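Narrative of activities, Objective 1.

The group set out to show that a structural description can be obtained from nothing but a protein's sequence at a throughput compatible with the screening campaign. Below is one input-output pair from the validation batch, recorded exactly as produced.
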Amino acid sequence: MGPLQLSSETQCTNPDMHYENPLYMAEDAGAADLISGGRLQLGISRGSPEQVIDGWRHFGFAPAEGESEADMGRRHTERLLEVLTGEGFAAPSPRPMFPNPPGLLRVEPHSEGLRERIWWGSGSNATAIWAAKLGMNLQSSTLKDDESGKPFHVQQAEQIELYRQAWKEAGHEREPRVSVSRSIFALTDERDWQYLGRDRYSSDQVGNIDEKTRAIFGRSYAGAPDELAAKLAEDEAIATADTLLLTVPNQLGVDYNAHVIESILKYVAPQLGWR
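Output recorded for this entry:
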């Protein structure tokens, strides 16, 4: 892979597809992409563990017969992807209020190219492979199923490799994009050491996020810039991804988080060849 990319694209990450009406979502996403000048990068997923029991039922959704709730979320996703192609599917009224274009109608507004800027937030190897087959970019965060007992960054690198292999086998014409997320803090002043100094000793955490799923949560990275760059250079998933998403402590306010990001760009990114 080439140098890791740091970008200012308009990101919208991980709406829970259990709760989404695919047609409404296509309409809203198309509008947002047109307004942003085609800069929207839309991340979606099947969501995190629920705060309530079967919350999606309160939004009018239910799995079809024989479906699990995860199947329902993936069905919603597949329908969204179909609609975003811009192909017509709805028969026009013979007596419309306004003139229609010829043929079947599509959801409007439609934004050309948005279909290729959909990212799937994958927490397992299997869903990464599924996303590749459907032609979605891969967004792998700081949490995934613990599928081998190896360190988090190694498991994530293996997930990315399986995704790229499945993408190639699917025969897609374009190159996929892959992002990973990290909490990274360059300790450059007294505030940094006070707020985040203890993250120098962070390590992966393993536990059960529900009764069926053993998961691994990736460590944070913190240290003086040279020390931090050396640690990050050993992260196998960062090395194989093309995009890095930085997670920031938003409870510390906008000004401090701007400082956190600026410190990474100024002191760490140049040492690692990030651009």
